[in-house]
Structures are given as C-alpha cells and as structure tokens.
Amino acid sequence: MKINRVIKPVPLPGQHKAALRPELRVHNFTKIFVTALSAFTMLCLPAMAQENPTGIRIGIAAPLSGGFAPLGNQLVDGARVAATAKNAELIVVDDRCDAEGGKAAAESFIAGNVQIATGFLCSEALEAALPLLNQRNIPVITSGVSDPTLTEKRSATPLPVFRLTTGLDKETLATGSFLGSLWRSQPFAVIDDGTIEGRERASHVLASLKEQQLQPVFTDTYRPGLENQNALVARLRRAGATHVYVGGERDDIAAIGASAATLKYPLVIAGGSVLNAAPGTQPLSADTLMIAPLKPQDLSTAKPAVDAINQAGKLPEAYSVIGFATIELAEAAIRQATDQKQPLIDILRDNSFETSLGTLKFDGNGMRTDNPNRLQRYDGTQFISAD
Predict the structure, then answer these.
(1) Taking Cα atoms as reference points, which of 247, 240, 222, 242 lies closest to residue 232?
(2) CB-based contact 381:286 (threshold 8 Å)
(3) pTM of the model
(4) What's the pLDDT score for residue 38?
(5) Which end of the chain is more exposed for a tag (fewer CB within 10 A), N or C?
C-alpha cells in the first residue's frame, strides 16, 4: 500500500507574516544592506588607518637600476625600515642617477602629494628635480650630493635643499686642524696627483697649515697610477720629510707606503675620504691616517637603526643607515611643522633634529653646521677612530 504523507504548513506568527509583505520586504532588505555596509566600513577604517595613520608622505629618489643600484637599494632598504617604524608612507622612485630620472622622480612626488623629497645620490638627478620641486615648495633632503648644483648656484635665494653629507671644504678644514696639531714639530710635505680634486685637497690643507704658521719642507705633484713610487719617496727622503699629506687616490697612497717600506724609510702618510675606496692590489700601510666622517653604522647614535635594520633582515651598511636617518629627520620635521603650524622649510632651517647620524642642524644654505670629519688610523684591516 502506498501512503502519501501530506505536511500541512504551520501558520506564521503575525509579526513574521508581516515581514513577508512586499512593501516591508524592500524596507527590510535596505535596512539589512545599510547595517552590513556600516559594519564593513567600520572594519575597513582601522585597516586603512594602519596604512598611513600619521598622514605623513615622504618621497625617496635613488638609483635602483644601473651601476649605482647597490647603493640606491641600501638607501631605500634603510628608509623603508624607518618609514615602517614611523608609520609614514614612502613613495619610492628610481632616479637612475640621471637627469631624466630625476625629473620623473619629481613629477611622481608632486603627483603623490609628498611633503618632503629625500634621497638623490647623484647631482644630475637632483639638478633636474629641483626646479619642479621648488615650484611646489617641496623641500629636499639629499643623502649624497654634498655640493650645490648649478641650479642652486644660479638662484638669487637659497633653495630648500638640506644636505646630510659634507663636502671637501669641511674635510680639508678638519684635516688642517688635526695635522696642524699632530705635525707642529714634524718636517712634513704636501703633495698631489695633478687632478683637479687632488690639487684642491692639497691646496686647501696647505693653506690651513700655513695659517697656523706651519711651512712644508717639500711640495710636489707626483705621477699617479704607478705600481711603485720609489722615485717620489726618494725625493721626500732627500727633502727630509717624515710626514706627508697626499691629495690623491687610495691606490697611490698604498703605493707610496709600499715604496717607503721597500726603501726602509719611516714615513707617516695622511689622506682624505678617498681612502674609503675599495682596496686595490696593494694594501695600505699600517698607521696610515685618514681624515673623513666615521662610517654611519659605526656611530654610537646609530645603534637603534642598526638593530632595526638587522631585525628587518637587511644589512646595516653605510647607505642603509643614512636612509634610516633621512626618514627620521623628514618625519620629525613634518610632525613638528604640523604641530606648530609652521612652514616645513622654516622648521628644517631653524631647528635641530636627533637622528641615527647624531644631532643634525642646518645653516641658511642647507649645510650641516657640525663637522663630522674625524681623525682615523688604519690598523692593518680597517680604519679606527684616533681622536
């Protein structure tokens, strides 16, 4: 026998039946949609705020392609670590170390509404970017261009460019001060390699020493690039010079030291920041002196940056620490300008800032007011502070 089971519908309570009326179904759907949308918005807002809760937008231009890419990547690595720590938005652009890349970087920064532009390891890129950024009153913190560009030199008023690196003037000023104290009673010589930079280094140091009433026993222009400098060392010995400042490259300074050892002539050799160049075939002589800034990662003030960069899985190299400090400076200036309701350019010009590179303050031309150059001595493997 086939049984057909009939299930009778159970009448709904009045309030539920009313909900199914056509005019109320539309109302209820709208209410549910609005409630869901509100909940979704509330969930999204914290996530959006976490992306850039401070409203700080910083641009960084660096060579991320080409021969200078390793340095550019170091700079950006450090900058990204600092930007994350400061909850700042970072707009990164490859300036390729050329004019076209610099112009493109400036255009990207303007389109991205950055408050400050940073980076620029090469003068060509900075030169091309400056006119566009200056039109929008966007200040620049440059990490690698120590001397004013042509655009800056031609400007009737100082452009808002602030430099983390110091140039030849401060290096040779510090050199004259250190050597004037160390070599006051020593017979010294000042020589150069005949290049524009070499002559400039030597002439500035010599002028500083003469201002201190110190006269060299020998000056000369030597022939650079030789495997040995026996003839030069022989001339130094005949002149009686036991100490020599060399306005030349690391390889030449190494060759002079090797020749002095070969001729068994004790000679104290000093040079500038060019001694930071990559080692050549000949090692430097132990106790060679260098007057230059300490490596950023070796500064006592850089420890927090070094630790943060390490924790991010990156190497705390020179330019990564500089990149970190650049963002520290930019973020602090933007925050101070916002809090004090002052123009950002004025804040940068009138205040000092604590960074991984130490306390930074700029003069009216955007140059650091301190002199970071220090006396260092080569211990056979590396330069160490000799202050």
Answers:
(1) 222
(2) no
(3) 0.82
(4) 40
(5) N
Structure tokens at 278: 């990559």
The residue with tokens 């604590």 is 354
Helix H or strand E encompassing 291: strand 289-293
Spatial distance between the Cα atoms of 71 and 76, rounded to a whole number of angstroms: 9
What's the pLDDT at 293? 96
Name residue 202's amino acid: A
User: What residue type is assigned to position 183 of the chain?
Assistant: W
Domains of the chain: 57-163+298-361 (3.40.50.2300), 169-293+373-385 (3.40.50.2300)
Q: Measured between alpha carbons, how far is residue 75 from residues 118, 306, 319 in Å?
A: 10, 13, 5
**Are residues 168 and 201 in contact, defined by beta-carbon separation less than 8 angstroms?**
yes
C-beta of residue 242 within 8 angstroms of C-beta of residue 257:
no
pLDDT along the chain (387 residues), means of 10: 34 43 42 41 35 81 96 98 97 97 98 97 96 96 91 88 95 98 97 97 98 97 96 98 98 98 98 94 96 96 98 96 98 97 96 98 95 97 91
Partners of 384 in the β-ladder: 377
Looking at residue 325, what is its pLDDT?
98
Question: What is the rounded CA–CA span in Å between residue 151 and residue 26?
Answer: 66
